[in-house]
Amino acid sequence: MKAEQKILADSASLITAAAEHFVTTARAAIAKRGVFYVALAGGSTPKGLYQKLATSPYIEQIDWTRVHLFFGDERCVPPTHDDSNFKMARQAMLDLIPIPAENVHRMPTESNEPAEVAKRYAETMQDVMQGAPFDLVLLGLGPDGHIASLFPETPALDVTDTLTTELYVEKFDSWRVTMTYSVINAALQVIVFISGEGKAAIVKDITTDAVSGLPVQRLAPQNTYYWFMDKAAAEQ
Fold first, then answer.
1. Distance in angstroms (rounded) separating the CA atoms of residues 62 and 58
2. Counting Cβ atoms within 10 Å, is residue 167 exposed (0-12), middle (13-18) or buried (19+)?
3. What local confidence, expressed as pLDDT, does residue 62 receive?
4. Which domain holds residue 113?
5. What's the structural domain count of the chain?
6. How big is the CA angle at 44 (ends 50 and 87), to the nearest 5 degrees?
7. What is the 3-state secondary structure (H, E, C) of 205-221?
8. Of these four, 115, 123, 142, 178, which has the most CB atoms within 10 Å of its CB?
């Protein structure tokens, strides 16, 4: 499935549109099933979204007691580390919204065993969601075409029998844990955020098929799939 592209004037417009879309999606899920399951992403554009959601009028428009927040990927660092996606989300949004602590499901990355982190997080997802799909998965796009921590030329790309997997990213000398394609593609809605002129080249490569086999190109959402871009990212 090809993504429906939403191109906004600039980063601020993108974040505002994303916040409005998030609220609409959350309210619809809660009205239909009484709960909203979402997987958060790291990165600067998602951070801007989280900051926006923690302000009026957005914060009042969601019943946060019915929201369950997960993380699409995480570096294997303590939750207080500056590289932690959880720490970023906590400072940008989680400490500011009225969400029950038990509804925020971070990866237990203080463990020194990435495989154990992946196993425990998959169990948490099963225990909480009982096999239901995510209502929304948020993703960023790296300049190498990676999404979540699904990096080019890593074994994680081919894992289909588990919800999560661990991987070592050599160029960053870091261990990561990531949700797999099987989870992401089953979501009711997937959004990839792409912002800034630094992403223009990779967007051009992907949309003109100048390259193939990039992790983002292996996305195959079964339901609704969007790219939220600003003009700088879409300019080429």
1. 7
2. buried
3. 98
4. 4-234
5. 1
6. 60
7. HHHCCCCCCCHHHHCCC
8. 178
Tokens of 183: 């989870």
Supply the pLDDT for residue 123.
Answer: 98
Nearest Cα neighbor of 182 from 165, 166, 168, 167 is 165
What is the structure's pLDDT at 236?
A: 87
pLDDT at residue number 1: 63
Q: Which tokens sit at 179?
A: 């949700």
Look up the CATH number of the domain holding residue 147: 3.40.50.1360
Q: Which of 88, 15, 7, 4 is nearest to 45 (CA)?
A: 15
Spell out, as residue ranges, where the chain has pLDDT lower than 50: none
> Which residues is 192 bridged to in the sheet?
139, 227
The Cα–Cα gap between 95 and 79 comes to 14
The model's pTM is 0.97
